[in-house]
Design brief:
The chain has 105 residues and is of the alpha+beta class. The chain is 35% helix and 37% strand.
Length: 105
């Protein structure tokens, strides 16, 4: 499956647009990760625990997006957009939303 943020596929002719597809992955960050991330905010530096959670959420979202495209008979996804949000009452959940257009070339 070819996946790209561009709206076309260089060297390929898009024969059919199969529709917009979306996938979301929401992961909760536990209290210990929140605590240590808060310390990182104060002293500076990167939060490896949050980076790990974001990578996992992104992996899940892209995997689900690819599966949805495959079910439509697509062999590529173009115009991919990736958004990140914190949600929940305390903002303790991480959401990755991925949207694209399933196509056949």
């Amino acid at each position: 499956m070819i996946m790209t943020t561009t709206n076309n596929l260089e060297g390929k002719v898009i024969n059919q647009y199969l529709g917009i597809i979306t996938s979301e992955a929401i992961l909760g960050a536990n209290i210990f990760k929140d605590f240590f991330a808060g310390i990182r905010d104060i002293v500076g530096g990167r939060s490896a625990s949050y980076e790990k959670e974001l990578k996992e959420a992104r992996r899940i979202a892209f995997s689900e997006l690819e599966e949805k495209a495959f079910q439509l008979g697509a062999n590529a996804i173009i115009g991919i957009d990736v958004d990140y949000e914190t949600i929940g009452d305390t903002g303790s959940m991480l959401m990755v939303s991925v949207t694209g257009t399933a196509v056949q070339f």
